[in-house]
Amino acid sequence: MAETFAVKLEERCYYPDPRCKAAAWTPDYTRAYSEFLHDPDGFWDQVARELDWFEPWDRVKEWNYPYAKWFVNGRLNIAYNCLDRHVTGGRRDKPAIIWHAESGEQQVLTYEALHHEVMRFANGLSSLGVGKGERVCIYMPLVPEQIVAMLACARLGAVHSVVFGGFGADALAMRINDADAKVLVTADVGYRRGKTIPLREIVNDALTRTPCVEKTVVLRREIPAADLDPAREVDYAELVARAAPDCPAVSMDSEDPLFILYTSGSTGAPKGIVHTCGGYMVGTYYTARHDFDIKETDVLWCTADPGWITGHSYIVYGPLAVGTTVVIAEGTPDYPDPGAYWQLVQDLGVTIFYTAPTAIRMFMRYGAEWPAKYDLSSLRVLGSVGEPLNPEAFEWYYHAIGGGRCPIVDTWWQTETGMHMITTMIGEPMRPGFAGKPIPGAVVDVVDRRGNPVPPGTGGFLVIKEPWPSMLRTVHGNDERYRTYWNTIPGCYTAGDLAVKDEEGYIMVLGRADDLIVVAGHNIGTAEVESALVSHEAVAEAAVIGKPDALKGNVIKAFVTLRVGATPGDGLVDELTRHVKKSLGPVAVPAEIEFMDRLPKTRSGKIMRRVLKARELGMDPGDISTLEE
Ligand code: PRX
Fold first, then answer.
1. What's the pTM?
2. Residue ranges of the Acetyl-coenzyme A synthetase N-terminal domain (predicted)?
């Protein structure tokens, strides 16, 4: 891409009701931010003191570029902070999780009940030989047991690797092997749009190439229950029933790993992002409480799945560390009808609603008459995450859902950052199209390739200039890839996004600078989709690009050359589509496949995706001097 470029900025601004500012946890953003800048360690020290530690830390931070340690020598357990702290601190009977199933079934787990479930399941896992530091893969639908399994691992000090239940067998196998997981926790099926998703079949396929897995725990939901293979499968309910009720929380060093979560890389295999116990707990606790302004009576619904970082940080760890009530719903936003979500907001009195722009755009399409059928007056705060919230979607969200009353917190962050880094704090003026400013605790800027800040109105690279508590510590098994984040632009963590600032410091995120495609808020690596396509016998080479889409932000378009003897046509398109779906899951399936005689390449043989993209979008391909004949 060009060094820097000019961007036309949106100028609309919304002023929030002064009452929500006055009552917010951060009533004065400017002051909070300057207090943080004045004494960053003191700022985080204060936050960390609001949580329970088994041993205090010696130093808030140790920064040895590009390696950080936070709350050095402090000892804690994050599950203890999410459960025991509340059970003994007056929230015993408060609902922790309200689960809603597509069938309409509901289940409420109070903090006490969740605490019990977690302790029993932790004992169950330990009876299978899971201990501190061991990896457990969790591949489940959106059910309370998924969260129980995560917290049980955290309680034991085992490292969880949650794989989104929508991934296919190859994607699952790769993640299991990379993390070297000993135990897999899964379910027989998930339910979606009235259909059953055969998770156990996908698991059994994956397990043919994952020698590290010793046991699989299966939550059986279907009736009659499927027979399990006693040599390698354990029934979830039986495991819990025979486990002892009490399980002390293991004392963890601040820097012990808490989880691995895979995110697509721009080249090569997905990266296992490693987060640690202490800093991650403090960062997610602080941002959940302050950015969403969580009060004691709030009911928070984050519509993500715990299989993504949004679910890890803002369904599970952040909100539960704060002690709030969390809603989870299995299924899709428009099933059985496009009013399904709004009915749930009304029935459960949801006050804080956090979703993705792709969902908002889908609701826009169905029309404002759907939310208008329900009483949404309980809503107080609306959040957005995953991709740019375009001004039209902002306006619709603000008026049709928020009734012109609720502040919108558009939160920019990543799997790697673990917590929100940019938003418009409650009570601050909102600018549609802009995520906002760095939160107190984060130092974010827009710079050129050499790391110099660019002037307002000029696009550049989004970077983070100082370490933060919940930053990734490494890429599992590949520290070299970790260092790349910090040595691409001198002195900075490079997020891989392009952005622009306005005169007042509001940041607009423009999209990815690299070969990642954000489809419906999910990061897809071009390399992963291309290798899935090439693994089909008919395909010689493949190149994929992102194509703007009104609903999903982007869709994937694949250009494919065929091996001699293969015949292009609709039949092959269908077959390749099925092939990618089976391998990577529905999120990575190309919306379009085009057959080509050859792909544009550099003289050194690299596929030039930007040439394909320019042709597809009718744009100037830029410098093509390296294009081969
Ligand atoms: O491109 C940015 C986009 O999502 C990327 C991070 O993806 P992932 O690690 O999967 O985490 C998604 C949920 C935190 C970013 O590099 N992104 C995320 N939030 C926003 C966003 N783009 C614009 N505005 C946002 N609020």
1. 0.91
2. 29-82
